[in-house]
Amino acid sequence: xxxxxxxxxxxxxxxxxxxxxxxxxxxxxxxxxxxxxxxxxxxxxxxxxxxxxxxxxxxxxxxxxxxxxxxxxxxxxxxxxxxxxxxxxxxxxxxxxxxxxxxxxxxxxxxxxxxxxxxxxxxxxxxxxxxxxxxxxxxxxxxxxxxxxxxxxxxxxxxxxxxxxxxxxxxxxxxxxxxxxxxxxxxxxxxxxxxxxxxxxxxxxxxxxxxxxxxxxxxxxxxxxxxxxxxxxxxxxxxxxxxxxxxxxxxxxxxxxxxxxxxxxxxxxxxxxxxxxxxxxxxxxxxxxxxxxxxxxxxxxxxxxxxxxxxxxxxxxxxxxxxxxxxxxxxxxxxxxxxxxxxxxxxxxxxxxxxxxxxxxxxxxxxxxxxxxxxxxxxxxxx
Length: 383
What we know:
Strand order of the largest sheet: 6-7-8-9-10-11-12-13
CATH topology of the largest domain: TIM Barrel
Structural class: alpha/beta
Low-confidence stretches: 138-144
CATH superfamily of the largest domain: EAL domain
Number of domains: 2
Shape: elongated
Number of helices: 14
Oligomer: single chain
Number of strands: 13
Radius of gyration: 28 Å
CATH architecture of the largest domain: Alpha-Beta Barrel
Helix content: 40-55%
């Protein structure tokens, strides 16, 4: 007989006779089992107690087994969930996989098969807990494996979203010109902006993320400030009507707003991109091309955006004082852009030597750790 510490099991089925029989079976094999006849009570209990395995019927009134699985994943990413049903469908099986069910069993389940599945699930639960503890100890997040887990993490990330502000310096005076608004989140599994954007793309939630970030950033444009705010746009935002709506909520401040569109992504997939950019410019905003030197080599982004500001990517700026090739490239880009009437901003400036080189080649604006790191506060820059 397996010892009493074999594992704690949660049973959910609106047929009480089934949960009673399974509860007795598990008890004789050393498991501790709790049974509920509806998903809502089971969900409440699962929020109070750490179960090793959850076994639930699919077809139940009010909340079915797949819905229960999805709700459980909002607070527990690891607990194995076993779904069983007497009326299998392709739809329920697909949803079970999408939301991370361990197994999909057909009623009636043979006793040996049921116990084998439970034992394996308990072992997997303990393995997952050990792995997560190890990753936390190493300072690495454990990831969001299933769609349900990713959705739950993304919702938490939206709730904990905040904006960091990094100073931008006028090269000619060494004084503050403005701040770039940079998206951050307090959700540990999606702390990095790249991970958050990737999750939004996978879930089809880019619009929600952009809207939330814009509202937070635009709230920083107070009437009594004279500096300029740089705000990043994803190419997807250009097709979102909410962008213009958000901007028009503060029309008197848009002359101090620069909208950055990255050169890393092509605008060719954005319908009527030039028309949409023109509409944004009519509000009083200025337009910047971000990541120049790291994106598409063609001129389509310049033709469609007709930018006011061009940002030279940090990959070119890094150690430019030690590279003759980088120095010549930055000088050439700066001269050509300024001839076309563009303001040139070099980003990623980390050292005094890089700063001095960029001053020498004639860049208009500078940004990077040399002047200040991103912060919740509007930190005064150093020179």
